[in-house]
Amino acid sequence: MADKMALAKAINESLRRALESDPKVLIMGEDVGKLGGVFRVTDGLQKDFGESRVIDTPLAESGIVGTAIGLALRGYRPVVEIQFDGFVFPAYDQIVTQLAKMHARSLGKVKLPVVVRIPYGGGIGAVEHHSESPEALFAHVAGLKVVSPSNASDAYWMMQQAIQSDDPVIFFEPKRRYWDKGEVNAEAIPGPLHKAQVVREGTDLTLAAYGPMVKLCQEVADAAAEEGKNLEVLDLRSVSPIDFDSIQASVEKTRRLVVVHEAPVFFGSGAEIAARITERSFYHLEAPVLRVGGYHAPYPPARLEEEYLPNLDRVLDAVDRSLAY
């Protein structure tokens, strides 16, 4: 039976199930216990599982991740929360020089099953350092898996799969979608963690996105349909690895591709997708791969963020430019 719940609640239920299923699963982070997290994603977990399983940490991101690495070496499966996206950088050294490389450094003998949860992206009117989209920085680092769900069902199941992974997973949670509700079937059999999903069939152009931008792309497809344009929407779900086979299959059907993400277009994940698909499907494309994202500038104050973030008109403009070729 499926239950309707918000994306944040789906993550909470997934963490609860993991804590119940495996005594080696631990949750750590700033205010994740008594407060239940800034967004209440971990609400009630410390009360039910105790302070030794759901641990309130000092304000020290490097220490949080470093401690999780040590725990993972001793057989635990830590799930750590970085309170906001912009706070992850004090822990960047631990993530890229230790967490990502230990498996290779030990010639496969050491596994580090650590999940790093990061609420990310804009759209909530937050202050500085609270609306970043740094996924490309982590996707560039070999040894890390990088994923981002767009809906409640994926949030539930992708968290389960991330915790069960023997490799470290950077789990980007689209904070502007925390309150969006969807059906979650806790008895379903999920698909592969890094498999993209077609969430809307189409024939004229493919919109590829992940995390917070999938809903926007569905709205764009609805608006385009009123003008007689039939757009396909592909939820990538994973930024590293990327399911290029699914993108290629969609593009070779529609012959056009627009990639949408909140992060800056410059050196963003859309650039890698554009390059790979151009290599793979050059003779199928009827227009260059276009990208829509943030600008190559520091994230602006809250009153200006709607000018910075991709919106319906900017994505529709890219669709029109692609179809004009």
TrEMBL record:
UniProt cross-references to Pfam families, sorted A to Z: Transket_pyr, Transketolase_C
Domain of life where this protein originates: Bacteria
Class of enzymatic activity (EC top level): oxidoreductase
Enzyme Commission code(s) on record: 1.2.4.-
Domain Transketolase-like pyrimidine-binding, chain residue ranges per copy: 5-180
Keywords assigned by UniProt, alphabetized: Oxidoreductase, Thiamine pyrophosphate
Cofactor(s) annotated in UniProt: thiamine diphosphate
Molecular function GO labels: oxidoreductase activity
InterPro entries according to UniProt: THDP-binding, Transketo_C/PFOR_II, Transketolase-like_Pyr-bd, Transketolase_C
PANTHER family (UniProt xref): PYRUVATE DEHYDROGENASE E1 COMPONENT BETA SUBUNIT, PYRUVATE DEHYDROGENASE E1 COMPONENT SUBUNIT BETA
Protein name: Alpha-ketoacid dehydrogenase subunit beta
Source organism (scientific name): Streptomyces massasporeus
